[in-house]
Amino acid sequence: xxxxxxxxxxxxxxxxxxxxxxxxxxxxxxxxxxxxxxxxxxxxxxxxxxxxxxxxxxxxxxxxxxxxxxxxxxxxxxxxxxxxxxxxxxxxxxxxxxxxxxxxxxxxxxxxxxxxxxxxxxxxxxxxxxxxxxxxxxxxxxxxxxxxxxxxxxxxxxxxxxxxxxxxxxxxxxxxxxxxxxxxxxxxxxxxxxxxxxxxxxxxxxxxxxxxxxxxxxxxxxxxxxxxxxxxxxxxxxxxxxxxxxxxxxxxxxxxxxxxxxxxxxxxxxxxxxxxxxxxxxxxxxxxxxxxxxxxxxxxxxxxxxxxxxxxxxxxxxxxxxxxxxxxxxxxxxxxxxxxxxxxxxxxxxxxxxxxxxxxxxxxxxxxxxxxxxxxxxxxxxxxxxxxxxxxxxxx
Length: 396
Known about the structure:
Oligomer: single chain
CATH class: Mainly Alpha
Number of helices: 18
CATH topology: Triphosphoribosyl-dephospho-CoA protein
Mean pLDDT: 79
Low-confidence stretches: 4-44, 144-150, 153-159, 376-396
Radius of gyration: 20 Å
Structural class: mainly alpha
Shape: globular
Strand content: under 5%
Number of strands: 0
CATH architecture: Orthogonal Bundle
Largest sheet: none
CATH superfamily: Triphosphoribosyl-dephospho-CoA protein
Distance between the termini: 39 Å
C-alpha cells in the first residue's frame, strides 16, 4: 500500500485547524464536550470520544506549526477553514466507531469530508483516529467501572480519571490485530477518494488494486516508507511513545495548548523524518527538515525568545508554492497524540503550580527535562499560577 500518510497534506499541505466550537455529532442532550461538566453524572462514551476526536483536530489545526496551514497561513488550494470543516465532518462517522469496522469508519469519514472540502485535508488523521476511537470504546480500555462513559468529566478539584495510555494502547492492539481484508478494501477506497499526491506505485498491495491481505498486513508492507502505516505496524509507537508524552509534559509545565501542540509537533519531527516530505521532496530534504526541528528545540523552542525566532525562520524555509516541504504526516501524528491526551483527561490539565507561577511572572520555563530554578518551588495558593485552576502533577 503506498503512502497513506500523504493525507490532506499531499495536496493540501495541512497544517492546522482549530475552532472553539466542537460540533458533537451523535451526542446526548447536555453533552458539552470532553472536560466540560455535563448536567448528568456521565454521558454516552461515543459522544465523549467523538468530541475528543474533533477537538484534537481543531487544536492541531489552530497551532502555528512550521510549514503547516494555520490561522492566517493558507496554501493556494487549501485554507485553514477547510480544516475546521473537516473536523466537523468526521464527527458522525467516528460516533459509530464502536459498531462498524475500522475500514468502514475511515471510508465514511473521508466521504463525509469530501462533501465539505475540495482537497485532501485529513486522510492521515482519519486513518489514525478511527482505530483509536474504536479502541477507546472497548471495555478493556476503561479505567473505571462506569458502564456509560470511557472518558470521565473532571472532578471539582480539576483532576480527571480518563483512559490510561496503557489501557488504550492495549485495546488498540486488539483492534489492529482484528482488521480484515474488507477493512483494507475500504481504506483503499478512502485513499483513492482523497487522492493524496506523491503516492507512486507499490510493488505489492497497491491502492489501485484489490487487496488480498488484512489492513494491518498491508500497513506493515508500507511501514518502511509511510509514517501512518508505521503507526499501524508498531501499535502507534510514535503516538504513544513520543507524541503523547511530549504533549502531557508540555501541558504539565504550564504551556498553552498552542505552544504545547507546537512543541509536540517539533518533538515528533525531530525524532523521525516526515514521510510526506520524503515522498514529495526526497529523503535528503526530509532529513534536513528533521534537523531543523532539532535545532529549534535546542534553541528552546516555544520556551524561549530565541526558539520562537527559530520557529518563525523554519516556517519561512518550509513554505513554497508547491508545499512539498510541508511536514504533513507529523501533523497527523500530532493530532493523534492530542486525541490520546484528551482521552486521558488532559483537557483539564493546566500544569504544576510552580511552573504556572513562573509563567505568570514572565520568567522563561527551563528546557525540557531541566529542573526548576531555585526559588520557583514553594508556591503559595494565592499565586497566579494556582488561581488558574490546574491540577498538580501528582494528580495523574
